[in-house]
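ERR on first pass: missing label on line 2. Operator R.T. fixed the label and resubmitted. Corrected input:
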Amino acid sequence: MNVLVFTGLVALGSLLAGFLGALTGLGGGVVLVPMLALVFHVDIRYAIGASLVSVIATSSGAAAAYVREGYSNIRIGMFLETATTAGALGGAAIALHVPTSAIAIVFGLVLLYSAYLSSRHREEHGPQMQSSPLAKKLRLEGTFPTPEGKQPYAVTGVASGYGLMFGAGVLSGLLGIGSGAVKVLAMDQAMKIPFKVSTTTSNFMIGVTAAASAGLYLARGYIAPGITMPVMLGVLVGSMLGAKLLVRAKVKALRYLFAALIVALGIEMIFNGATGRI
Amino acid sequence: MNVEAKTAAPAGFDDQRIEIIIGMLLRTGVILAAAVVSVGAILYLVQNGRNTTHYASFHSEPERLKSPSDIFHGAIALDPREIIQLGLLLLIATPVARVIFSAIAFAIERDYMYVVITLIVLGILLYSLFGSA
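pass 2 clean. output:
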C-alpha cells in the first residue's frame, strides 16, 4: 500500500469511528486500535500511540461544551486524576514490555466487557444524603443544575472509587483507550455521584489520563507521525460531526449496531492474540 | 483560613467561570494543533505519497521524533514528519496546560490542599514527557 492510499483509508476509517463513537456515546477510541491492527496490520503499539493522541483531541476539544453545562466537578476530577495518571504511567510501562499478543487478548476482553456494560440497563441510585468523612475532608461534594435550581449532592466510597480509577488508568495506558466506561462506573456506582456529573467529569479526566501515557509512548518512539496524523484528524472531524448530529438522530438502533461491531472486534482480537497473529 | 466561606459555595460560580475559560483555551489549543498537523500532512504527502508503508513491525521512531526539543528543531527546519510531531506534541500539551491553569485557579482561591493535589498530577505528566526517556 502506498502512503497516499494508506493515509486516506486510515483517515476515513478514523472519521467513521469518531462519528459513531460520539453519536452512540461509546467513544471512538475503543474501535480505533482493532481497526488499525486487524484491518491495516499496523503493529499494535503504534496503534495504541495513535489512539491515545486522538483520545486527547476529543477530550480537550469537547471540554468547553461540557463545562458550560455546569455538571463537571473539578475537585473530584483532579483528586481522582492522581490515581488515573499514576495508573496510566504503569499501564504504558507494562505495554512496552509484554508481548503484543497478550495486549491483544486483554484488549479483546475489555471490548466484550464494554459491549456488555453498554447493553445493560443502568440502575438509577437514589441521591446520596450523607457524605463520608473522607469525601468531606477532600471537599468533593458539589452542586448540579436542575430545573428547580442548584441541587447539592453527597459523595461516598472514596477508597473504592480511587482504586477503580487506578485500574481505569492502567487500562488507558496499556490499551490506548479513554476507558471512560470504567471511570463513569467508579464515580456513578462506587462513589454514588450523580450520573450527569460522572459522565462530564469523566470526559475531562480522559484527556489528562491519556496525556500521562502519551508522553511515555512518544519518548519510546511509539508515536509514528504517518499513522497518528490521519487517525487524529479523522477522529477529530468525525466526533465533531457526531456531536452536532447527536441532538436530532435516533441513536438506539445505531447503539446496538455499534455494540455488535465491538463484540465482533473483541472476538477477533482475542482470536488473533491467542493464535499469535498479533 | 476562610474555610467557612469555602464550604458555603462548593464548586460554585467562580469555579465554573474559570473552567469555561480553560475549556475555550483548550479548544483553541486543539484547533492550533490540528492546523499544524494538517500543514505537516500536506508536505508529508507531497514528499512521500508514493512510498510504501512499513508499519507491520515495530522499529522505534528515530531519536529526532521522540524528544520535545529535537521535534521543535526539526519543525523549524520544515521537515514534514517533525511538523506533524510538533502538532501532536501541542495536542499532548493541552491537558498539561489545563492542569497548570487549574493549579493557578486553586491558588487564587487559596485552596492549598488542591494546589498540592494538582501539582502531584502535573508532576506525573511532566515525568512522563521529560523524565522517562
